Each structure stands twice: as C-alpha cells, then as structure tokens.
Amino acid sequence: KKYFKQIETSDLFENFTKLTEKEYEEEFTFLSLRKTKGINLAEFRDKFGVDFKKKYASVIEKYSRNGFLRMDGEYLRLTPKAYFVSNEIFAEFLR
After folding, report:
1. What does the pLDDT look like over 7-23, one tens digit per residue?
2. What string of DSSP letters covers the chain?
3. In the chain, where are the structural domains located?
4. What is the pLDDT of residues 39-72, one digit of tens each?
5. Which single residue of 19, 32, 58, 87 could bond 23 by disulfide (Cβ 3.0 to 4.6 Å)?
6. CATH class of 19-93
C-alpha cells in the first residue's frame, strides 16, 4: 500500500542518486567483471564510445600476462585464478 502511495505522489525515487558518466562507466566495468562471463567489450564501446582494450591496455596486458584475465571473443573475463584478488584488479581499472 505504501509503495502505491509513493508512486502516486512521486516520492518513490526521492533518494535516487544520478550517476555521472564516469561513475556509470566505473559501475558498468566493476559489475561486468564480477560476472563469470566478464565484460562485453562491444557493449562497453556502444555505451561509452570508447574502446575498452585501448583505454585499459596496460592493465589488461599486466593481468593477462599473469594469467588473471583472459579474452573470450568479445568478452574480457577474470580467470578462476583471479577470483581471490579480484578487488585489487578492479581497483586498477578504476584509477
């Protein structure tokens, strides 16, 4: 009942925070890399107009060389070896 009242009075989203483009890109990257499938590079390019592999080439190279990241077609994903250090890897993408 409270939910419907909030819809009627438009109070439902009063505590909603709008993300900046940079924050949205960071959230998308972080949440996508958390998935087993990884981040869809074509989707990233379509959403943000940026080539993910070029933007983060040094981070991708570093962690691919160490066996923590792997390309699977249009996806970049963490390998099982990276699961325990994933937060450290995510942090490098957000710098």
Report:
1. 666 666 666 778 899 99
2. -HHHHHHHHT-TTTT--PPPHHHHHHHHHHHHHHSSS-EEHHHHHHHHSS-HHHHTHHHHHHHHHTTSEEEETTEEEE-GGGGGGHHHHHHHHT-
3. 19-93
4. 999 999 999 999 999 999 999 999 999 999 999 9
5. 19
6. mainly alpha
